[in-house]
UniProtKB/TrEMBL annotation, chain A:
<dbReference type="GO" id="GO:0005524">
    <property type="term" value="F:ATP binding"/>
</dbReference>
<feature type="domain" description="ABC transporter">
    <location>
        <begin position="12"/>
        <end position="244"/>
    </location>
</feature>
<keyword id="KW-0547">Nucleotide-binding</keyword>
<dbReference type="InterPro" id="IPR015854">
    <property type="entry name" value="ABC_transpr_LolD-like"/>
</dbReference>
<dbReference type="GO" id="GO:0016887">
    <property type="term" value="F:ATP hydrolysis activity"/>
</dbReference>
<dbReference type="InterPro" id="IPR017871">
    <property type="entry name" value="ABC_transporter-like_CS"/>
</dbReference>
<dbReference type="InterPro" id="IPR027417">
    <property type="entry name" value="P-loop_NTPase"/>
</dbReference>
<keyword id="KW-0813">Transport</keyword>
<dbReference type="InterPro" id="IPR017911">
    <property type="entry name" value="MacB-like_ATP-bd"/>
</dbReference>
UniProtKB/TrEMBL annotation, chain B:
<dbReference type="InterPro" id="IPR018309">
    <property type="entry name" value="Tscrpt_reg_PadR_C"/>
</dbReference>
<dbReference type="InterPro" id="IPR005149">
    <property type="entry name" value="Tscrpt_reg_PadR_N"/>
</dbReference>
<dbReference type="Pfam" id="PF03551">
    <property type="entry name" value="PadR"/>
</dbReference>
<feature type="compositionally biased region" description="Basic and acidic residues">
    <location>
        <begin position="216"/>
        <end position="225"/>
    </location>
</feature>
<keyword id="KW-0238">DNA-binding</keyword>
<feature type="region of interest" description="Disordered">
    <location>
        <begin position="178"/>
        <end position="225"/>
    </location>
</feature>
<feature type="domain" description="Transcription regulator PadR C-terminal">
    <location>
        <begin position="91"/>
        <end position="177"/>
    </location>
</feature>
<protein>
    <submittedName>
        <fullName>DNA-binding transcriptional regulator, PadR family</fullName>
    </submittedName>
</protein>
<dbReference type="Pfam" id="PF10400">
    <property type="entry name" value="Vir_act_alpha_C"/>
</dbReference>
Length: 246, 225
């Protein structure tokens, strides 16, 4: 795990990001001066109680929301400078989302769902399908390519959603409680897939309240009242805590 | 449980000498309970004294193997049949520490909780890494590998469950403290009927006391907290 090493430019960088909803007396500070980086090959988990700002953080990272102050960089580019088209392109080309409820389009097959962001980005259908099949292969559900979501289990749908998030050369996957609707065994399988995609060079930001799932990450960041209060830091270099004398 | 019962269980399979007992005990429990050879031999001589094992004789290298006596055999059988006595489980330092932290003046309980949570999550990350590796099947192969791998995974998963439970309990501690802090101090009025019941408005965790937005959050699984 985490064997990729890190490159100099993080895939995701948040610099002193603050998000305030409303103004004056009714202003609510959802995030306050949060800075963090997620590099290629890294999976970072964000934990915190309800209302701590986890989802706001994810929305800002994916350009679905804009910070009140501070900057968000995706692959080195400040996304605050992007407007309409630019933001849409960013979301199609560089960022993938995975949600609790899978969010696959029911009238499209697995392969069509995965190919969709590429087609929306103007790629030819056949080429998009080829990329989609490769992405499905990487998450271990190549054989489900022509199935519709309602003919798949929750775990399979979530694998397809991960494939969609990372199809083409997208490197950033933002996952909001991706295991929330799954039983614990299936949830773990999904985390394992996410982990492997990150080991292969993707950067992952995972929001979860399940410690057992957060533990698949290289780093766990604790958010409270919009502030990062602690982090588990870099993974231990020691191979095993159970073999202290080895 | 004592080392004693573990060794008896291993000896029930076939006679073994000390060093092999130690190696097998550790291999099968994933090294979660490291033994030293001295401990094993001390235990064996005590078991011999109590009539639970007997020496079979020396092998060519001068190692003394032991086997179970019939008393020893029934001791093992009883162990498999009886539940583990939870009353004799060692007391948990963390529970004591937090119970004291909330009562001793001037302790930053939230900090105690967060420090522990971070440490426990690090532990959980380490365990998860070990599990990932173990289930990826890149461990040494050899005889009995399958059943030993399963044993090792089960031990790891037990530790994972325990660590997870600890984190959940820490979350619960914070939620409860936040709830207590936001509750009007009715107790001073002195009527026992004022004994507070759960207030639904505070049900969703400490973040809400700060008036944070809830719409963007998906924490309905937190109901266990």
């Amino acid at each position: 795990m985490g064997t990729m090493g890190t490159t100099n430019t993080p895939i995701l960088r948040l610099a002193e990001v603050t998000r305030v909803h409303g103004s004056d007396a009714t202003a609510v500070r959802a995030l306050a001066g949060v800075s963090m980086e997620v590099h290629a090959g890294e999976l970072v988990a964000v934990m915190g109680p309800s209302g701590s700002g986890k989802s706001t953080l994810l929305n800002l990272a994916g350009g679905l929301d804009a910070p009140t102050s501070g900057q968000v960089f995706v692959e080195g580019e400040a996304i605050g400078a992007l407007r309409g088209d630019g933001l849409a392109r960013l979301r199609r080309r560089r960022v993938g989302f995975v949600f609790q409820d899978f969010n696959l389009i029911p009238s499209l097959t697995a392969a069509e769902n995965v190919a969709l962001p590429l087609e929306l980005d103007g790629q030819r259908v056949r080429r998009a399908r080829r990329h989609a099949l490769a992405a499905l292969d990487l998450v271990g559900v190549r054989e489900l390519a022509d199935r519709y979501p309602d003919a798949m289990s929750g775990g399979q749908q979530q694998r397809v959603a991960i494939a969609r998030a990372l199809v083409g050369d997208r490197k950033l996957v933002l996952a909001d409680e991706p295991t929330g609707a799954l039983d614990s065994h299936t949830g773990e399988d999904v985390l394992r897939v996410l982990r492997e995609r990150c080991d292969d060079g993707a950067a992952g930001l995972l929001v979860t309240h399940e410690a057992r799932h957060a533990a698949w990450a290289d780093r766990v960041v604790f958010l409270r009242d919009g502030v990062v209060v602690d982090s588990t830091g870099q993974p231990a270099t020691a191979d095993s805590l159970l073999e202290p004398t080895a | 449980m004592s080392v004693k019962l573990g060794l008896l269980a291993l000896l029930a399979e076939e006679p073994k000498y000390g060093a092999r007992l130690r190696a097998e005990f550790e291999a099968r429990t994933g090294g979660t309970w490291p033994l030293n050879v001295g401990q094993v031999y001390t235990t064996l001589s005590r078991l011999e004294r109590d009539g639970l094992v007997e020496a079979v004789g020396e092998d060519a290298e001068g190692r003394i193997a032991y086997r179970l006596t019939s008393t020893g055999r029934s001791e093992v059988s009883r162990w498999w049949l009886e539940p583990v006595d939870r009353d004799s489980t060692p007391r948990d330092e963390l529970v004591i520490k937090l119970a004291l932290a909330v009562t001793v003046e001037g302790v930053d309980v939230h900090r105690v909780v967060q420090t522990q949570r971070t440490a426990t999550l690090k532990h959980l990350q380490d365990l998860t890494r070990l599990k990932h590796r173990a289930s990826a099947g890149d461990r040494d192969t050899g005889p009995d590998t399958d059943s030993h791998d399963t044993a090792w995974l089960l031990v790891l998963e037990n530790l994972i469950f325990a660590a997870e439970a600890e984190v959940r309990w820490l979350d619960h501690v914070e939620t409860r403290l936040a709830r207590e802090a936001s509750r009007p101090r009715r107790r001073t009025s002195g009527t026992p009927t004022d004994e507070p019941t759960d207030e639904p408005t505070n049900e969703r965790g400490p973040g809400h006391e700060q008036g944070q937005p809830t719409t963007s959050e998906k924490d309905h699984h937190r109901t266990t907290a």
